[in-house]
């Protein structure tokens, strides 16, 4: 195999350029799925793709796909990519490193007249983060025909449905089927992503080879009580939905923290309650549960125990409750043949990348249901991500970034 060295400066400056869209503060970004900022970012990356000669399209899921024709266009494609939508309080590197890194790799190939055996596609998949409509991996699941019923009726905090947000973005949800791939059309999927964790920095390694992605379980819990005057209703007869929720929230944290040696993580990241007045007993609470583990059985055992706590708390506070499921995925492992190539080529560059699992999920989690996948992690500074202080990928870590062909 021979290799070419990417242009690290060009890659880094594109990451910084893209970060100006939806910029918050000095280094923060906010580009929610299917938002005007998301569209502006998609159009900028689309322009960059076209400038290097890729054939581009924005499909009806809101995905941006750039294609480099291969010597044998009848072969399944090698897909590489990630996402450029972000969390509402995000950094500049989560997702963008994977899309712009893929773009840089293809540009380096084109500049060196390398024609890939099979066509290659760079995907900037829509709504990977799942913040706005409470379910992630939308665009990557969409092209695989894996969307569940009701997906288009999901509402954001303003009550806008995903359907209307997509139409505003310029998509026609009625045309989803024509944007789907037959599963045998994709040979494999590769994703470059920031680690969003401490391992590479602690080992002094610039990159890591991902062994697998934790299986996320996302639930939304709704508790219903009864509003009343906080001064006059005695404690024994209250139906305080927020007091009921508090017990469940701390229980999730306690259960997930029980064994610090495990990769179990549990988070309540979003909570809304009504009527939200100092002197009215909260009548309704809705909050999210994000429970993950590379060990699915262990995760499901914690889920069972948590549901028990919900039932006890509901009984104690005389509430009613509803639990809806947004995401339930088993952990998905990278395949050996791709990891082997990554290892050999890294060693050839004088690197010794550790293998590590990913607690965060990625578009690779969706893609892995239909094809082999591999992921490379780029080191994160101070384990920070989903935070404007996220920092990765300084030029000095990547002087030798290469495209192996
Ligand atoms: O939540 C995640 O793990 C990913 O960042 N969307
Ligand atoms: Mn990401
Ligand atoms: Mn993320
Ligand atoms: Mn991702």
From TrEMBL:
Domain of life: Bacteria
Domain Peptidase M20 dimerisation residue range list: 238-316
Pfam families hit by this protein: M20_dimer (PF07687), Peptidase_M20 (PF01546)
InterPro entries according to UniProt: Amidase_Cbmase, Bact_exopeptidase_dim_dom, Peptidase_M20, Peptidase_M20_dimer
Keyword match Manganese: yes
Keyword hit for Metal-binding: yes
Key words, A-Z: Hydrolase, Manganese, Metal-binding
Gene3D superfamilies cross-referenced by the UniProt entry: 3.30.70.360, Zn peptidases
Cofactor(s) in the UniProt record: Mn(2+)
Protein family per UniProt: Belongs to the peptidase M20 family.
Quaternary state and interactors: Homodimer.
The protein, known as: Hydantoinase/carbamoylase family amidase
Organism: Siminovitchia thermophila
């Amino acid at each position: 195999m021979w290799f070419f060295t990417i242009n690290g400066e060009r890659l880094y400056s594109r990451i910084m350029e893209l970060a100006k869209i939806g910029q918050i503060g000095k280094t923060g970004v906010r580009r929610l799925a299917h938002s005007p900022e998301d569209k502006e970012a998609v159009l900028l990356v689309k322009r960059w793709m076209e400038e290097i000669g890729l054939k581009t399209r924005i499909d009806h899921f809101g995905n941006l796909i750039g294609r480099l024709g291969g010597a044998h266009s009848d072969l399944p494609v090698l897909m590489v990519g990630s996402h450029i939508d972000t969390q509402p309080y995000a950094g500049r590197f989560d997702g963008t490193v994977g899309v712009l890194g893929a773009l840089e790799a293809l540009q380096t190939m084109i500049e060196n007249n390398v024609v890939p055996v099979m066509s290659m596609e760079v995907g900037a998949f829509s709504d990977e983060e799942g913040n706005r409509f409470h379910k992630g991996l939308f665009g990557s699941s969409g092209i695989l025909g894996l969307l569940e019923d009701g997906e288009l009726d999901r509402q954001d905090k303003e009550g806008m449905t995903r359907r209307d947000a997509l139409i505003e973005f310029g998509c026609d949800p009625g045309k989803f089927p024509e944007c789907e791939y037959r599963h045998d059309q994709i040979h494999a999927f590769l994703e470059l992503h920031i680690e969003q964790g401490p391992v590479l920095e602690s080992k002094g390694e610039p990159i890591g080879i991902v062994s697998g992605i934790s299986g996320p379980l996302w639930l939304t819990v709704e508790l219903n009580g009864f509003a009343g005057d906080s001064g006059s209703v005695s404690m024994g007869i209250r139906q305080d939905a927020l007091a009921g929720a508090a017990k469940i929230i701390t229980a999730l944290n306690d259960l997930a923290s029980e064994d610090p040696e495990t990769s179990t993580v549990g988070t309540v990241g979003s909570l809304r309650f009504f009527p939200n007045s100092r002197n009215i007993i909260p009548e309704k609470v809705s909050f999210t549960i994000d429970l993950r583990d590379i060990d699915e059985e262990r995760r499901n055992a914690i889920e069972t125990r948590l549901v028990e706590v919900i039932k006890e708390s509901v009984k104690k506070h005389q509430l009613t409750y509803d639990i809806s499921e947004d995401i339930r995925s088993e952990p998905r492992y990278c395949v050996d043949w791709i990891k082997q190539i990554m290892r050999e080529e890294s060693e050839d560059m004088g690197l010794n990348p550790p293998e590590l699992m990913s607690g965060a999920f990625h578009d690779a989690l969706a893609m892995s249901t239909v094809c082999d996948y591999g992921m490379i992690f780029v080191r994160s500074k101070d384990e920070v991500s989903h935070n404007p202080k996220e920092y990765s990928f300084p030029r000095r870590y990547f002087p030798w970034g290469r495209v192996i062909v």
